[in-house]
Amino acid sequence: MRSRRILAAVIATAALAGLGLTGAATATAQGAPSAVTPGQCEQGGGTPRVDLPGNPCVGGKYDGQAVD
Fold it and tell me: Is-above-0.70 flag for pTM?
């Protein structure tokens, strides 16, 4: 009976640790800059459109992000 409790605690700890690692990876992936330079936009394959509302980078890696 005691070994079942220990096994359950180990499994629960491992599951929570896995969720923590997943959350950390998601937070890192979402850490992209909210604004890019015109050069970064172009290097990423986009076109800086400062003539549009919000000055977006259109297309490429930074599509939709503001151009600073």
Answer: no
